[in-house]
Design a protein that fits this description.
two-stranded antiparallel ribbon; mainly alpha; 1% strand; homodimer; Farnesyl Diphosphate Synthase
Chain lengths: 300, 300
């Protein structure tokens, strides 16, 4: 932790919240344009699921990584909006009765509780093509659009996000080691964070090394994020975190494998690695660095 | 019917079955390369759902429309394979308990019956991005790839396929007129046939008029196909069609609105219109014309 805390001193720590709010506003305006008006029940349910009070952390990563390469804000925001469509679909389907069977999401009834199971399934089925269609129509070079499409397809497909969800549901057989859990979380949570961070590099035609650095950062953030989530669910203060704890008690989490102190230490190590991943940018990625700081206080 | 029957005389009527088998074989080889090896339960379930003995009519349309513009067979087959991935996903999700709740599909247990509901949902969720990812990586001009992606996104999204499914499930309110049913079937069945037929024109950089002709042909085929399906379900011979009749008795079908003779007449009129749509090709599209003939005998 020493190096992380030291570097915190040099950060403009008041920028994160302000930037996150600006990005969230920009991306919600973008989503409002991408989503059809709520003239059908399906479109109403799509909007219900996409506009639900998410923090828009993935959008923040895309916008701040884009900024490193002077990508026009509009392109960054539209790409971020696409990632939010995918994130929203994944939550709607994860909540379904045959998956996590969750009645609530972000403090309101989950999509299938509000609109029924068939509509919720179809909301996801409609959000995925909308994401790809939107990328295909961005006003940027065809090659960059195709690279975004191919990479997004890869990370959310049967060897990415969906594979992680299969593991999480126990559909790929028993999983019991730390390695198993790390792989599962990498796929279920990590790869979309990795893509969100790398997307700015794709948009900005960054070098392979720069793209790799951004992807690593996103992946490590996702890993720390999930560890922190498990820690908070098992050891956090319900009032401070704003949701009931112990919800994952029957699931396979990091607290099944590590005691709380070890998990906390491992989370901090992971955050440090994420910070190190940004070193090629020599401080210019301070807004990405700040996201790591922002994620910390809740666990400390 | 007069004009259709007349033109039948000039058709090489022995070509359809042979070509359909060749296309089916080619597209299944393509699908085998696109789908990851069945080393996980998810990949096993994806293959189970994609390789299920479908006739590959949509692939036929793509390959035969491609042929009109001398598109390399490989590109036509890969695009056709992508459309089959989407068709497979739509069947898997349509069969889910919250949708049509169908236990059987093409003579074997539906995906959720064989693999469980969660896996079946995730099979669909994985097939959609695989389709877009595959299109993005085709070895054809970037502009053509993007056009295919954008158009596919449009036809399978919330204003296409998924909208039709919402209507079919009664999720968009009561629907009772012939116009309602035509719109529902257009979206649920027609648009993917329309895209499959137009795809050859997109690949072949056809003129807008040629693309429109192909799309109309596919849409009209889809319309006739659905009418015929309803007719057979209500009036067909179980043994001849190889599946139980009366399955749609509680659904909103053309037989709720038209007597069997009127429906049969309307189907024939629709097939005639589909044939007329191909007139700009002056007989060169005879393999597409033959598909209309092939679809007829079952209802006559």
């Amino acid at each position: 932790m020493a190096r992380l805390q030291q570097s915190l001193l040099t950060l403009k720590t008041d920028s994160f919240g302000e930037r996150l709010r600006a990005v969230a506003q920009g991306v919600e305006d973008g989503l409002d344009k991408i989503l059809p008006p709520p003239t059908t029940r399906l479109h109403e349910a799509m909007r219900y699921s996409v506009f639900g009070g998410g923090k828009r952390l993935r959008s923040y990563f895309t916008c701040e990584s884009s900024r490193l390469f002077n990508v026009p804000l509009q392109n960054a925001l539209q790409t971020a909006a696409v990632i939010e469509l995918i994130h929203a679909y994944s939550l709607v389907h994860d909540d379904l009765p045959c998956m996590d069977n969750a009645d609530m999401r972000r403090g309101k009834p989950s999509c299938h509780k509000a609109f029924g199971e068939a509509t919720a399934t179809l909301v996801g089925d409609a959000l995925i093509p909308l994401a790809f269609q939107t990328l295909a129509s961005l006003e940027i070079s065809p090659e960059v659009r195709l690279e975004l499409i191919e990479e997004l397809g890869r990370v959310i497909g049967s060897q990415g996000l969906v594979a992680g969800q299969m593991m999480d549901l126990g559909q790929e057989g028993p999983r019991s080691t730390l390695e198993d859990l790390l792989e599962q979380q990498h796929l279920k949570t990590g790869v979309l964070f990795g893509f969100a961070a790398e997307a700015g590099g794709i948009l900005g035609k960054a070098s392979p090394d720069e793209r790799q650095a951004l992807r690593s950062y996103g992946l490590l953030f996702g890993k720390a994020f999930q560890m922190m989530d498990d820690w908070l669910d098992g050891c956090g203060d319900e009032e401070a975190i704003g949701k009931p704890c112990g919800q994952d008690i029957e699931k396979f989490t990091f607290l099944n494998l590590l005691d709380p102190d070890s998990l906390r230490k491992k989370t901090e190590e992971t955050l440090q690695k994420a910070l190190n991943a940004l070193s090629p940018f020599e401080g210019r990625a301070y807004l990405l660095e700040e996201a790591l700081v922002h994620a910390l206080p809740r666990i400390s």
